[in-house]
Amino acid sequence: MKRPAWNGAPPRDGEEAKARIIDAAMRCIDRHGPGKTSLSDVAAELGVIRQTVYRYFPSTEELFIAVGFAALNSFLERLVAHLAGRRDPADVVVEAMAYAIEQVPKDPYLGLFLDLGRPEAFSRGATSARAFDACRLAFARTDVDWDELGFSGDELTELLEFLLRVLLSFANDPLPGRGGADLRAFLRRWVTPAILAPTPAP
């Protein structure tokens, strides 16, 4: 017997439909892995046809970007907790970068673009205004006074853009064997100077 659409509980509106599609995609990724999850799997999970999923997400890439963003806030919460108690700006920047470089590829949702060989999709999502806003809020919650260091407004946005682009270079072309203390020493040597440029606000 054929199951009713949406497993008998249709969404109230488009926003709920999108949220349920994203949740279904996450369950499919958990079950099959990111490389073997298709829109057909997601549609079957919801009890709808593929065209229904396409109505809200025109391509697989768009759906996976939405899944990545759904996971971004959770990741940033973990990052802020990891950085708690660190007050030295260089230490915060280096540890934030190292943590992201080490953890993003392991996250089944944030790393799914890389697993599927879609680094350009990951890049476009990670450098979007939405990603910048989320990262700015996360950095503002650390124990560093960025305004006092001269990182306010455009300066902080530029710093975050620089850090995200460095992160993308590692994500798209990781260096085998560089991790732990070696990774942090590398980042401290080359990334730390970026936070010394702005003049502290008067």
Automatic annotation (TrEMBL):
Family matches, as InterPro entries: Homeodomain-like_sf, HTH-type_TetR-like_transc_reg, HTH_TetR
GO molecular function, one term: transcription cis-regulatory region binding
Protein origin, superkingdom: Bacteria
Pfam family for this entry, one: TetR_N
Keywords for the protein's UniProt record, in alphabetical order: DNA-binding, Transcription, Transcription regulation
SUPFAM superfamilies: Homeodomain-like (SSF46689)
DNA-binding region coordinates: 38-57
Residue span(s) of domain HTH tetR-type: 15-75
Protein name: TetR/AcrR family transcriptional regulator
Lineage: Bacteria, Bacillati, Actinomycetota, Actinomycetes, Pseudonocardiales
